[in-house]
Amino acid sequence: MEDIRVVIGDSKFDVRACGVLSQDNHILSSVESDGSQTLPGGAVKIGETSKEAVVREFLEETNIRVRVGNLLAVVENMFNYKDKPYQQIIFVYEVFPIEEISDIKGDIEVKWTPKERLNALKPSPLNDIIQQLGTTIRHVINKED
Q1: What residues does the Nudix hydrolase domain cover (predicted)?
Q2: What percent of the chain has pLDDT over 90?
């Protein structure tokens, strides 16, 4: 299956899904190749639901089997990538491990960060979503200049 990712003129568009995994008041984040942090997840594939994408991506990236909980937020993320417009729709879910987490070894580097110290996630609205977990479903528009 192909990722839902298209090029329209000079612009790119994709659909992404990620999960918030909390343990002992720490949040699991992934470390990108440029050193920035985000939530584990990735592109939704054609014919796949956003929930199915979160389960698949968590297993691929962390080797953690998860159950998907509530939808926490939908983020419309607009930014420039390599000097070209890029737009994403990001579904953010709470996730729960199906079994005890003993060892994380997947395709990417991940780390546990205390919830109160997690403030450098990209895109930036994820930081507010983490700090306000459990309040209500949020719709966020992030338009970077």
Answers
A1: 11-135
A2: 72
Nearest CA among 145, 111, 92 for reference residue 35: 111
Neighbours of 141 (CB within 10 A): 10
Tokens of 15: 């659909």
Cα distances (angstroms) measured from residue 53 to each of 43, 47, 70, 103, 142: 7, 10, 14, 22, 22
* Topology of the domain covering 5-143: Nucleoside Triphosphate Pyrophosphohydrolase (3.90.79)
For 35-45, write each residue's pLDDT tens digit. 889 999 999 99
> Where are the domains positioned within the chain?
5-143
CB-CB neighbours of 58 under 10 Å: 24
Cβ atoms < 10 Å from Cβ of 53? 25
pLDDT beyond 80 at 134? no
Q: Amino acid identity of 1?
A: M
H-type helices in 45-140, by residue range? 50-62, 125-131
Look at the block and give the residue holding tokens 């592109």.
Answer: 43
* pTM, full prediction: 0.91
